[in-house]
Amino acid sequence: MNACLLDAPAAVETNPLDLAEAPVPEPRRGEVLVRVSACGVCRTDLHVVEGELPPRKSPVIPGHQVVGRIEKLGEAAGRHRVGARVGIPWLHQTDQTCEYCRAGMENLCDHPSFTGYTVDGGYAEYAVAPEDFVYSLPEPLSDEQAAPLLCAGIIGFRCLRLSGVKSGSRLAFYGFGAAAHVAIQVARAWGVEVYAATRGKKHQQLAAELGAVWVGEAADDPPVKLDAAIVFAPAGELVPPALKALKKGGVLILGGIHMSPIPSFDYDLLYGERSIRSVANNTRRDGEDFLREAARIPVRTQVQPYPLREANRALNDLKSDRVNGAAVLDCRK
Ligand SMILES: [Zn+2]
Ligand SMILES: [Zn+2]
């Protein structure tokens, strides 16, 4: 099969992914083999490719928003049928035995594996995954449109959940990329008023089109105090302005897996029972609940497609803010 291989992390400007021939993986016990049609490009892929996340496998095939149809079942696998459309997410597998898994917090598992990082992912024509960790995907979204739901969508949903917003809440997004452009649709369906602080006219315009009541530059002050804010951009310098935008008791959620250092700030910004919380991965329950909600609303994704062989270009575009909505690889080309 064709696959994009990363031998060693490097700046994406050096085009570190090599399109190469690789063996089609064989599904092991409890796994399914998926013929990949589309794979979303996530900011986490950038962190894997550029080494902000320490390398865990070499070579590795990145990609953890994998959409395709099951082509083959491994031994004892029977939860999905051959031909079913499924999605393979970031959380590839957990041990299901550690204290976190037993407490219903498998997103914090002590011994997890991650798709496209510790095991091969979906920048390829085929991928394998444990059948218990793949999602059935709701119609009628196309494969390309469904791909960004699998990480951007689910993580954004978990951010919304942890933020505690409900109908009538005021919520700001800092950064308006793939996750925010989905989360705003969910937030609005819940009756939440959304404020978007983001650099780049295109991102601001998309936020306005999707119903933000206010758009501004990345560190601008929203015009009212907020119940919650979510920082999606990997920029620690946004934490103080986001805290400043909160009213007393407000919640600040940090949605990324990696963030540049957070500058020091006065205790006054946090005092008043404001809180800061990171989001790490998601549970399968988050994923299932989100996909049901996405089908109900229904969520529409804005997708910028690239052929598989141009994965380096997609990552470069993501890094330099040239993607509006979500970048998705067409793995059939
Ligand atoms: Zn565990
Ligand atoms: Zn991701």
Report what the structure shows.
With 333 residues, this protein is α/β, with parallel strands linked by helices. Helix content is 23%, strand content 26%. The protein has nine helices and 17 strands. The strands form four sheets. Strands 3, 4, 5, 8, 9, 16 and 17 form a seven-stranded mixed beta sheet that branches. A six-stranded parallel beta sheet has the order 12-11-10-13-14-15. The chain has a two-stranded antiparallel sheet with strand order 1-2. Strand 13, helix 7 and strand 14 form a beta-alpha-beta unit. Helix 4 packs across helix 5 and helix 4 crosses helix 8. The longest helix is centred in the C-terminal third of the chain and has 13 residues. The chain is globular.
- Given the C-alpha coordinates, what overall shape results? globular
Average pLDDT works out at 96
Structural class comes to alpha/beta
Number of helices: 9
Beta-strand percentage?
A: 25-35%
Largest sheet: 7 strands, mixed
CA radius of gyration: 19 Å
What string, H for helix and E for strand, traces the elements in order?
EEEHEEEHEEEHHEHEHEEHEEHEHE
Low-confidence stretches: none
Distinct small-molecule ligands in the complex: zinc ion
Give the total of beta strands: 17
C-alpha termini separation: 12 Å
Question: Topology of this structure?
Answer:
Layout: E1 2-6, E2 17-21, E3 31-41, H1 43-50, E4 66-73, E5 85-88, E6 91-93, H2 99-102, E7 113-114, E8 126-130, E9 135-136, H3 143-146, H4 152-163, E10 170-174, H5 178-189, E11 193-197, H6 201-209, E12 214-216, E13 226-231, H7 239-244, E14 246-254, E15 275-278, H8 284-296, E16 303-307, H9 311-319, E17 326-330
Parallel strand pairs: 10-11, 10-13, 11-12, 13-14, 14-15, 16-17
Antiparallel strand pairs: 1-2, 3-4, 3-8, 3-17, 4-5, 5-9, 6-7
Helix pairs in contact: 4-5, 4-8
The structure holds zinc ion (2 copies).
One zinc ion (ZN) binds at residues 94-95, 98, 100-101, 106, 109-111.
